[in-house]
Amino acid sequence: MTVQPDTETTPARGKRPKQGEPVVDRALSLLAVFSDRRRALTLSEMARYAGMPAPTALRLIARLVAWGALERLDDGRYVVGVRLWEVASLSPRGHGVREIALPYLEDLFEVTRHHVLLAVRDNEEAVLIERLSSKDATEVAYRVGGRAPLRSTAVGLVLLAGADQQFQEAILRKPPENEPGVPDMPEGQVRRTLSDVRRTGIAMIRRSLPSRTVSVASPVFDAQGSVVAALSIVVPDGSTPPNVLAPAVRATARAVSRNLGHHAEVSPDVRTHSQG
Amino acid sequence: MTVQPDTETTPARGKRPKQGEPVVDRALSLLAVFSDRRRALTLSEMARYAGMPAPTALRLIARLVAWGALERLDDGRYVVGVRLWEVASLSPRGHGVREIALPYLEDLFEVTRHHVLLAVRDNEEAVLIERLSSKDATEVAYRVGGRAPLRSTAVGLVLLAGADQQFQEAILRKPPENEPGVPDMPEGQVRRTLSDVRRTGIAMIRRSLPSRTVSVASPVFDAQGSVVAALSIVVPDGSTPPNVLAPAVRATARAVSRNLGHHAEVSPDVRTHSQG
DNA sequence: CAATACTATTCCAACCAATGAAAGTCGGCT
DNA sequence: AGCCGACTTTCATTGGTTGGAATAGTATTG
């Protein structure tokens, strides 16, 4: 044997090749490995996806489980825990708006019996906060907790139109992402559309791909007059005409806004008259 | 001057009195400071409630904000972020059951126009996963994301009745907590009630305090036959008689169970016959 | 307007919690 | 029995973490 027996002492313990990421970030990255498709994961899967050695993952996961951010199933796999959900339910832009909006969404849903959506903007995407759907009714669209592009969805356009100018420009500068099923608009048309949305309080999008549908969305304002959410209805193309839906959607959105403390002006583009 | 000038060197930097809590735990404790009443907090508030020095809190909060677990408002305060809500929406026992149950809850709500609740058990309490309420209708009860006691609520009794024997005993051994507005039952009566709940699939509770209401709850089973949630309806006392509500609640709960892959047996307490 | 009180942020040297290779354990499969 | 994969425990090393102190910013008060 060419192996050196050396001594009884452990050869090379604690020899970290090198690292350098805050522990908190690592812990959070362990939460981030979960997704719509990955709702229950084993230790080794989590370690692999999060890019860290199993022992490290185990140690961090143990803390997360102890707190309730994760739960362990009988088969040893981990899932997101109720405790995390509980804290998350305090998110003003998550459950916050939802809580206030829900009764109004229900009314709209009950009358129309079509998908009713509520979304907020997170960075460059829309996040679906709520979706009411009759169990029998129409096709699927987006999942609650899921994300949707800003430029090619009705809620996205409403949120984009309500964002600050600087952000809008940044988005518009980016090349379109060619969302399948939605005709992508050239930049100029997007600008005109956003302007229309601001003026009319309504965005409309036709998509063909998951199925032929029409979405009509309207902005929800907070007390400061900022657009905090977008409310929309999704109907099969050809069922109810959009111009019939628009007033209902707009009225519902305004009702929610009012409950958020927003005092609607006569119309945003009429204010300039008062300057004369 | 009795003060020792000593040298120019910094006197006593980095002199930690001592500590010893995992960083992850500290970060999580910063999430835990949020509550129904505290949805937006300043740095110093968070540091105070979490019991740590401001610089430490700031450093950890910075990581949480970077990831999206927290968001910073214009006024400098922090709130729970949408990203956290997004991950939490993957919680099987949180949004998971909710997603499946919602259409059925809506049906029940639409027919009755009374509060419809969905709850799961987390440790020794019930956590409210969903609540449908008409905006005009009745008084408030519990908040979505909030907690309710097991022994003195209808959903709680259902969840307790469906828990494993060992856990039930542990709860029963504890002295009752004297929930105001609910007549507290002696241990024997609780046992009988739990037995009844298992047999009939219905729990019923009258409370007087937030207002005079009757709650009727029924268990939701998963594919393995475990009770994973409780579904209930809350009506003003004296409106609809409970025995009229029970079938509707039970039917809704069974519909949800079926969608979770549960194959209902004829009746749990009849199975013994097949042994003959 | 200075003084006071508070919160937020930056700095940094000491140090302890975090680290991960290695080894041990468990369970399944051949 | 032997192999393989996932999970868990151990432990010497060390770099990320720590919090007092200093600084900057903000609101309140005399």
From TrEMBL, chains A, B:
Residue ranges annotated for the IclR-ED domain, each copy included: 83-262
Region: Disordered; residue ranges are 1-20
List, for all copies, the residue spans of the domain called HTH iclR-type.
21-82
Tell me which PROSITE patterns the record gives. HTH_ICLR, ICLR_ED
Provenance organism: Pseudarthrobacter polychromogenes
InterPro entries in UniProt: GAF-like_dom_sf (IPR029016), HTH_MetabolicPath_Reg (IPR050707), Tscrpt_reg_IclR_C (IPR014757), Tscrpt_reg_IclR_N (IPR005471), WH-like_DNA-bd_sf (IPR036388), WH_DNA-bd_sf (IPR036390)
User: Is Transcription regulation included in the keywords of this UniProt record?
Assistant: yes
Q: Where is the composition biased (Polar residues)?
A: 1-10
TM annotation in the entry = none
The UniProt keyword set, sorted, is: DNA-binding, Transcription, Transcription regulation
Q: Could you identify this protein by its name?
A: IclR family transcriptional regulator
Q: Which domain of life is it from?
A: Bacteria
